[in-house]
Amino acid sequence: MLTLEEIGARIQSARVTRGLNQVQLSDKLKEQGLHISRETISKIESGDRPLSAMELPVFATVLSVPVTELLKEETAEDLVTLFRRKAGVNIVSEEIAEIQDMMKALIRQKQLHEGKLIVRKREPIWRV
């Protein structure tokens, strides 16, 4: 399931790819008739504020990305579903889920190494 944090990270990634800071993005959105402050953009990118159905296409236009790119699910099917379709597979679904989690972690590490993943630093839960 797609989360607000994932959508925000995609918006942030598209903004950074186009060489825009949050103030510049705010200005470009205002040119399109959408008045959103830099602070609100920060909240959207961190997943603290959702985008409305009216705002999303404007963001996509300004960032030159299709709306579907901002909203697409990372994987159409997970490994558990694929293995369940096969008859006679003797692997426990928990093991498959663990393998899937490991693969996702490896993919994220690769994206991080290639600079395609932007990591947001957060305060640890135990300090709050």
TrEMBL record:
Q: Which residues form the HTH cro/C1-type domain?
A: 11-70
- Alphabetic keyword roster: Coiled coil
Which SMART domains does the protein's record reference?
HTH_XRE
Coiled coil region boundaries: 89-116
Keyword match Manganese: no
Under the heading InterPro entries, the entry gives: Cro/C1-type_HTH, Lambda_DNA-bd_dom_sf
Q: Does the keyword Coiled coil apply?
A: yes
Protein name as annotated: HTH cro/C1-type domain-containing protein
